[in-house]
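To assess whether the prediction recovers the assembly geometry, we first specified each molecular entity separately, as shown.
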Amino acid sequence: MKKRLIASLVVGVSMLGMGSVMAQEPVKIGLVIPLTGATAVYGKDGKAAADWAAREINEAGGILGGRQLELIYEDEKGTPQDGVAGVQKMINQAHVDAIIAGMNSSVTLAESAITKNKVLHINPGAQADAITNQGSPWLFQINNTSSTNANVFHDYLIHGMKPKTIAYMGENTEFSKALLENLQGKLKDSDIEMVEVATYDVHTTDFTSILSRLKAAAPEMLYVVDAAPARTAQIWKQVRQMGGFPMEVQSAGTVFGPSITASEGAMEGVISGDIFITDGSEGEMLDFIEKARKETGGEPNKVTMVVYEAVHILAEAMDKAGTSTDYQKISDTMRSETWSTPRGNLRFDEKGRAIAPYFYIQEVKGDGVTLREVFEVQ
Amino acid sequence: MELLFQTVMNGLVLGSGYALVAVGLTLIFGTLHIVNFAHGAFFALGAYVSVQLQSFGLPYLVVLPLAVVVVAIIGVLIEVLVVRTALYDRPEHGSIIVTFALSQAVVAGLVLLVGPDPLPVRSMFSQISLSAFGLFLSAQRLFIVVITLLVLGIFGWWLKRSVRGQQLLAVSQNPRGAYYSGINVPMIRMLSFLLGVSAAGLAGGLLAPIISASPTMGDAYVIVAFTVVILGGLGSISGALVGALIIGLANAFFETYVSVSWTPALGWILVIFVLLLRPEGLMGQKDLNRH
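The predicted structure of the complete assembly is given in tokenized form:
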């Protein structure tokens, strides 16, 4: 009897010891982002934001009883095949507790087919509705969907800017197709005519022929849909060289500092929209922007914000759920709670989509954008 | 009618940009029998060196020739350290692997050193747009056409009229025979590689004010350059120019009147069509016994 008691005590103390060892194991989060390739600027800003968020959480004591966050990076290079390879590595080799991946819709669609029912996946930036329409129970999206942004932005183009004719040019991707469909649907109930539609391969660098064709149609508005900063700068430079258009618009959520700088003034006056803007910000958003400048060493943008939010919301959800590996429990927690972020309170719907409370219409001025109008998103 | 003339002009201008990238590629293949997949990397290097030189306050017209010199120096180093050891007198598939690896290393190096953000190259021509009879042409593109014709003209004259040019042709036709005739084959090979990559660097410096410098900027151009070179005939300088103009015009017309999305396939379709009728390319010569 005495021997049994001693044995039980030894086992019990060992298990306590094991518990404390387990509490020290880091929570591994895999980030599959474009560190090279045409969208590498998103990866650079995303990494800076993720490192900052993890640092904040770890300095505050970590999660789940003191466990630190460990971020592991893989380069998706802006291509679906490398994105797939990246998430596979995270799941099979790095054995991460969760994945944050998604800057480009085509890449994220491919990645989410791999992560479905295998691992918790947070998509910070990719917008295509098709990503969350898959119904993956453990997939969440921080950025607005294309349709949410498009509904507000296209309403503004049609009822706010009121062009008589529109010419559309966009990259041949899921993102662009979704926006084109949304716009064509809304134009049916208006007097505005879409006079030209031109889609191009993502490897295109010379847009002169396309722009010549669009100019020949004499539209009042040129609407450019492109998510790659380098290509965006090229397009607008070439638009300027062709003499420009009376109204010039770029797809919501795709105008960034690097493309404005590289365009050397060619984007001046271009209208766009986003869920993030520095001009006119106040309160928590202003605090976030000032802190981000110090912590990331650069000018914050939407990528900074959505990746920062992704890391924080994921960590808080794991902490509230009391687990880093019971994905159903974490997902239920994410859907049932309200999350405090720099842009206000966020909630996730049944498809795992967060809806930003505000949408900002912006105009390119100098090296940045200025606020033109604010819409509250329903 | 205006659109037709604009399309013809766009095609010729587009083609001249392709020609400058392609002529370097065809020279390297014609003389060295190396399929240079790193050609796009030298194109990007030309653009990035231009960015760096401009940051010292140098004007564009000074930056451009200096960028070519710097790319040439880098080319010489790579020729001595990599190409000479790994690629000469070896099977051509080896050059595909080595030059592809080189291109990936250069791109990764650019991202590491300079970052992934697109960077502008300022030219006094890029903000000027010329317009007449309803047609538009940017001054930078006109500058590219002028420089391309000048460079190709001088190069063609040099190949035909100078001793070194003749030696280069001799080495491209029969390196062993050239060696036995007393030609310094290693030096000629280095010269060919240097000229080839310098042309790519010049093209990068000329096009950067239009497309901005980015690490992967050479990828699309090197693919088109390959279609141009195969179409015009591997190793043929005049073929590179003719092929470039054909591809430029075809792309411009297809994009304007048919579909933009199918344009990447168009060049390859033209290549297959021409090779079926004339396997050596439009202006290439049938393969001679090089031993």
